[in-house]
Every structure is written in structure tokens, then in C-alpha cells.
Design goal:
By secondary structure, the chain is mainly alpha-helical. The chain contains eight helices and no strands.
């Protein structure tokens, strides 16, 4: 029991637990799509595959945004792309930014709200991509991450406005 508790703490630390879970899910889905892509290429693992060449057909199979599918009713494709990545660099950059921002947003709003914000802003990003370029396959957590940045900026602005009220007569 103690071993399981410590293993869980390593994988999902107390601070930023949802962030860690999201990154873990992203990593596992990347490994899965990478393995399926390698399999579809007769076992050929090349540098191009790792850097951004995950097979688009595999990504579509796992839920990438593709306008025609969404238009036919695959609404789940508004959520799934948030957790898919096209290469190691893509995954690494999103993981890095999420590890930097996620725990702060989780601490500020709590785990439940953070999860809702992350998913809703991610859906917003996928929906914008669907409306702007429906015939392009797209994946990634950038929309959700930009949503978190917006939350932090909005909170910073409202905190500054509320806590540093300076009477107009004392302004320089």
C-alpha cells in the first residue's frame, strides 16, 4: 500500500495533480499513436516520425479534428485533439508550458475548476480551428494552454485593479 501511495505521488504530485494527469495522458496517447504509426510503416522508426510525422490517418483514428467528421456528428472530436500530439517536440513544448502554468492555475482556482477551464478552453480552440479551417487535420493542447494564459492574465488584471485602488487625486 505504501509503495502504491509513493508511486502515485511521483506520477501525480500533490501540487499540480491535474496538470500531471493531463501530461501523463498526453504522453501515453503520444506513445500509443507513435507505436501505431510505426506499425503502419512496417516497423520503420525514423527521425521524421518522432519530430512530427505521426501518421495523420492514425491521428484521425484517435480523434484528431477533421471538419467533415465533426460536421457529420463526431462531436467528441472537439475534445480528443486536446490530448493528441504530432511529434516529440510538439509534445515537449506543450508539456513544458503546461507544467509551468498548470499548477499555478490549479492553485488559484482549484482542481475541479482548472479541469473545466482546461477542457472548455481546449474545446474553444478546436472549435475555432473547425470554423477557420475545417478541412485541416489538427491536434494539440495549444488552445487549452492559451486559455490558461488568458485566465492568469485576467486574474492578474482584476487583482491589480482591485488591490491597488489609487484615488485619482493622487495619480501622477
Amino acid at each position: 500500500m505504501l509503495f502504491r501511495s509513493r508511486a502515485a505521488e511521483i506520477l501525480l504530485p500533490a501540487r499540480g495533480r491535474v496538470t500531471a494527469f493531463i501530461n501523463l495522458a498526453n504522453g501515453l496517447l503520444f506513445l500509443l499513436t507513435l507505436l501505431v504509426s510505426i506499425q503502419s510503416m512496417d516497423g520503420q522508426l525514423g527521425l521524421g516520425l518522432l519530430l512530427g510525422g505521426i501518421d495523420p490517418v492514425v491521428l484521425l483514428r484517435y480523434g484528431a479534428k477533421w471538419g467533415p467528421f465533426i460536421a457529420q456528428g463526431d462531436w467528441w472530436r472537439l475534445v480528443a485533439p486536446i490530448f493528441l500530439h504530432g511529434g516529440v517536440l510538439h509534445l515537449a513544448m506543450n508539456t513544458w508550458v503546461l507544467l509551468d502554468l498548470g499548477p499555478a492555475v490549479e492553485e488559484l482556482y482549484g482542481r475541479a475548476k482548472f479541469t473545466v477551464f482546461y477542457v472548455l478552453t481546449g474545446i474553444g480552440g478546436v472549435a475555432a480551428s473547425f470554423l477557420w479551417k475545417p478541412a485541416v487535420v489538427s491536434i494539440g493542447a495549444s488552445g487549452a494552454i492559451c486559455g490558461l494564459i488568458g485566465l492568469l492574465l485576467g486574474d492578474r488584471k482584476s487583482t491589480r485593479l482591485n488591490s491597488s485602488h489609487i484615488p485619482l487625486s493622487r495619480m501622477p
